[in-house]
Amino acid sequence: MVERLSVEEIDTALVALEGWRREDDELVKDVPITPDNYGWLSEAVMNEANDLDHHPDIERTGDGVRFRLRTHSAGGVTEKDVELAARIDRVLSGAARDRG
């Protein structure tokens, strides 16, 4: 079983994850994007998620998209969530190569 991270471990990981925050038992990031960018961004993030076999909740918001990460089987944030957050950041910065 994957181990859930402590609040202290999550806060330490958040130092390296720009714009991410801890909300209850999740990592959350809001990204302002135009509606026409939602499709490619969701696809690029899902390519990274499939590579990790770990999937985010992706919600449309009024001005963009919200990513929510948690490992349901562990009941909170794990190393997989931290890794996926870092990969989402690489996608957002254009550094991830297309896996699709």
Description:
There is one protein chain. By secondary structure, this protein is an alpha+beta fold. It has 3 helices and 4 strands. It has a 4-stranded antiparallel beta sheet with strand order 1-2-4-3. A hairpin with a 2-residue loop joins strand 1 (21-23) and strand 2. Helix 2 packs antiparallel against helix 3 (79-93). It is globular, with a radius of gyration of 13 Å. It starts with 6 loop residues before the first helix and ends in a 7-residue tail after the last helix. The model has no long low-confidence stretch (mean pLDDT 92).
Q: Which runs of at least 5 residues are low in confidence (pLDDT < 50)?
A: none
Strand content: 15-25%
Principal-axes geometry comes out as globular
Overall mean pLDDT: 92
The percent range for helix content is 25-40%
Placed side by side, the strands forming the largest sheet appear as 1-2-4-3
- Element string (H = helix, E = strand): HEEHEEH
Termini separation: 29 Å
Computed Rg = 13 Å
**Structural class, please?**
alpha+beta
How can the largest sheet be summarized?
A: 4 strands, antiparallel
